[in-house]
Design a protein that fits this description.
By secondary structure, this protein is of the alpha/beta class. The chain has two domains: 5-24 and 34-68, no CATH class; 71-342, P-loop containing nucleotide triphosphate hydrolases (Rossmann fold, 3-Layer(aba) Sandwich), CATH 3.40.50. Helices cover 37% and strands 18% of the residues. It is built from 13 helices and eleven strands. It has helices at 5-20, 57-62, 70-77, 96-108, 127-130, 174-187, 206-215, 231-247, 279-287, 299-306, 311-314, 319-334, 339-342, and strands at residues 81-89, 115-119, 139-141, 144-146, 148-151, 154-158, 193-199, 222-227, 251-262, 269-270, 291-297. Strands 1, 2, 5, 6, 7, 8, 9, 10 and 11 form a nine-stranded mixed sheet that branches. The chain has a two-stranded antiparallel ribbon with strand order 3-4. α6 (174-187) packs parallel to α7. The longest helix has 17 residues, at 231-247. It is globular. The protein binds iron/sulfur cluster (SF4). Iron/sulfur cluster binds next to α2. [4Fe-4S] cluster 1 binds at residues 37, 51, 54, 60. Belongs to the Mrp/NBP35 ATP-binding proteins family. NUBP1/NBP35 subfamily. This is P-loop containing nucleoside triphosphate hydrolase protein. One of its GO terms (molecular function) is ATP-dependent FeS chaperone activity.
């Protein structure tokens, strides 16, 4: 059945509710949350129509609705991180995780910079493979969970490290996903980092709301939005930009990925995804957000990701690396940092 206007309005209201209210402490439940659970931490817990008949109804209805006591712990845990950046995309298939791993490697070319990458794509974690730490597991110490180190100055944390088998499907609903993201933020011992890149799943889902609400107090610097040039991708980017504006997340810039294919042999450039409506640059101008640059397609990027190697180390003079360096410098400028210090000239 098609969604009604009334249902759409209610949905919009609940998004606004989540964005404007701090997360509440989850009560101890006596049964698993049912499928249509509004969230045991939500204002409507135990009171919503969908709570009728749930064995937890009494507990949820009477649970204290104060702010989540874990939020100050998260803020303290992340206090050693200078800049926290979300990497977002409106739709899947635009190469967001590939871009995140390239960006991490680009930052890491400066030995004086320490980077962390947090993979919150719980259902499809691909960052560990791309950064060459797929076989790592989590080490737990009294200080917390230790991230895996892909390079001397590049740390990674992903759900992948907790899976006994990398091919296991992860089928988790909202509250459990939120719990894991909270644990990532609260328990991972990142130490002192210059930048933490948070790779999120495509769209505007639970994971985005959780990351944003959990990090509200620790101050996210902003988001980098990744798209491809064709209108079908740009349509969804407009929604992502609207989400950021509603959530109060500053947009640090838009990146157009796979903007053209540059042949590694003859360097001839071909537009695979044609920018029929002007591509990322025109959209950034239309929406009044910074445009950080276009990163061309290069088959060697896919190979480097498959082998978990740094594309920067292997092909530093490629057009894609040059474009990414420009993206890092633009990002540094938008973070009010000196671009020449963040990404020194060769
Ligand atoms: S009572 Fe409502 S909020 Fe609580 S677990 Fe059941 S469905 Fe979820």
């Amino acid at each position: 059945m098609a969604p009604t206007l009334e249902a759409a309005a209610q949905d919009a209201e609940s998004i606004q509710d989540v964005l404007t209210n701090p997360l509440k402490q989850k009560p101890s439940l006596i049964a698993p949350e049912p499928e249509h659970c509004p969230g045991p931490e939500s204002e409507k817990a135990g009171l919503a129509d969908s709570c009728a008949g749930c064995p937890n109804q009494k507990i949820c209805a009477s649970a204290p609705k104060g702010p989540d006591p874990d939020i100050p712990l998260i803020t303290a845990r992340l206090s050693g991180i200078k800049h926290k950046i979300l990497i977002l995309s409106g739709k899947g298939g635009v190469g967001k995780s590939t871009f995140t791993s390239l960006l991490a490697h680009a930052f890491a070319t400066n030995p004086d910079t320490t980077i962390g990458v947090m993979d919150t794509d719980i259902c499809g974690p691909s960052i560990p493979k791309m950064l060459g730490v797929e076989s790592e597991t989590i080490h737990v110490s009294s200080a917390g969970w230790s991230p895996a180190w892909a390079m001397d100055n590049l740390a990674v944390m992903s759900i992948q490290f907790m899976l006994p088998n990398k091919d296991d499907a992860i089928i988790w609903r909202g509250p459990k996903k939120n719990g894991l993201i909270k644990q990532f933020l609260k328990d991972v011992e990142w130490g002192d980092l210059d930048f933490l890149l948070v790779d999120t799943p495509p769209g505007t889902s639970d994971e985005h709301l959780s990351v944003n609400t959990f990090l509200k107090e620790s101050q996210i610097d902003g988001a980098v939005v990744v798209t491809t040039p064709q209108e079908v991708a740009l349509l969804d980017v407009r929604k992502e930009i609207d989400f950021c504006r509603k959530a109060g997340i500053k947009i640090l810039g838009l990146v157009e990925n796979m903007s053209a294919f540059v042949c590694p042999k003859c360097t001839h450039s071909s537009e695979i995804f044609k920018a029929t409506t002007g591509g990322g640059r025109a959209l950034a101008q239309e929406m009044g957000i910074p445009f950080l640059g276009s990163v061309p397609l290069d088959p060697r990027i896919g190979m480097a990701c498959d082998y978990g190697e740094s594309f920067f180390d292997s092909f530093p003079d490629s057009p894609a690396c040059k474009a990414l360096k420009g993206v890092v410098r633009g990002l540094a400028t938008n973070l009010s940092l000196d671009p020449g210090t963040v990404m020194p000239e060769d």
